[in-house]
Amino acid sequence: MGCYDTIIINCPKCGKEAIVQTKALGDNTLETFGVGDTFDSDNYNGAFQIKDNCEHCGEVLKIQIKNGKIIGTTCEAPKYIERAWGEVDEM
């Protein structure tokens, strides 16, 4: 198992609340983040595709990050894609 952080956002497709876990953002200290929150790192700027999909409709979830802050969800092509175990590919 291991530590992770949680992101709570509204799915851009169905509008329902989506709760997903990430090892790629934050310090993996079981914190919860949402729109308007800032991670400890400003490494990411652009669309970030989370490894989990919306549990309600299956939509691929992407958040827009600017200077480490979640500014909302997005439908644009991701600049970063989270993979297993917190690895991130930059497109």
Please describe what this structure looks like:
With 91 residues, this protein is an all-beta fold. The chain has one domain. It has no helices and 8 strands. It has a 5-stranded mixed beta sheet, with no helix packed on it. It is globular. It starts with a strand and ends with a strand. The mean pLDDT is 89.
Topology, please?
Elements: E1 5-10, E2 17-22, E3 32-34, E4 46-53, E5 60-66, E6 69-73, E7 80-82, E8 88-90
Parallel strand pairs: 1-3, 4-7
Antiparallel strand pairs: 1-2, 4-5, 5-6, 7-8
Topology as H/E string?
Answer: EEEEEEEE
Q: If you average the pLDDT, what whole number results?
A: 89
Can you count the helices?
Answer: 0
Straight-line distance between termini: 28 Å
* Strands, total number: 8
Could you write a compact summary of the structure shown?
The protein is mainly beta. The protein is 0% helix and 45% strand.
